[in-house]
Specification:
The relative contact order is 0.16. The chain has five helices and twelve strands. It has one domain: Rossmann fold (3-Layer(aba) Sandwich). The strands form three sheets. The protein has an eight-stranded mixed beta sheet, sandwiched between helices. With about 220 residues, the protein is an alpha/beta fold. Strand 11 and strand 12 form a beta hairpin. The structure holds cytidine-5'-triphosphate. Cytidine-5'-triphosphate binds near residues 6, 89, 119 and 136.
Amino acid sequence: MKILITAGPTREPIDPVRFLSNRSSGRMGYALAHAFVKQQHQVLLISGPTSLDVPHHVDYLPVESAQDMHDAVAHALPRVDIAIFCAAVADYTPVEVATQKIKKSDEFITITLKKTIDILGSARSVHGFTGYLVGFAAETEDLETNARTKLLAKKCDMIIANDVSQSSIGFDSHENEVLIVEAEENTKLPRDSKEHLAHHLAAIILKRFDRKRGGVS
Ligand code: CTP
């Protein structure tokens, strides 16, 4: 199977030396990439900057901004069976990028931001992706309701939701605890290392992909 995984944060440039980003470590996406290659699947990992080692036998495409990640994904989507969007993509990016380093002057400065492209949201509606589509949802409240809204809005087969209000799981931590939300069911995977969770998630995604491909509901 050919599998695309996005991972890590994006960096939205402000000037040549500064950017906006977030606390995503990339661990969940890299653990998933590792879990799929271990089962002899072909993985393309499109990742924002992280401090992680790229798992062996994974095709790796480094990107920086949300726009870069979008362009790389759009190019790869027609060739994959399963696409998993783990990346913590910036929702907003500066309207203008200063060509020179912004000098310290006024007491307050304002940076105007504009919405980035929703990469996952455009997979089906803009790029016509017909494979198995998995999104993540980082939530601080109403986990299931918000995840289900994203499942429908972004036309996903599955949303893997995690509660990012708990600092011991999710963002920038080694453990996670997720709720898998699909059209007909929810499945809770209890707290575990991201590596163990990745193996469970990979097995479930492959099973669901087979079911979808076989046309069995
Ligand atoms: N995502 C994406 N492109 C974006 C924003 C998000 O591909 N510009 C993807 C993420 O990789 C994830 C899913 O959309 O798979 C949900 O991301 P999340 O940050 O939870 O939700 P948002 O759509 O950004 O909505 P909000 O921040 O309002 O919850």
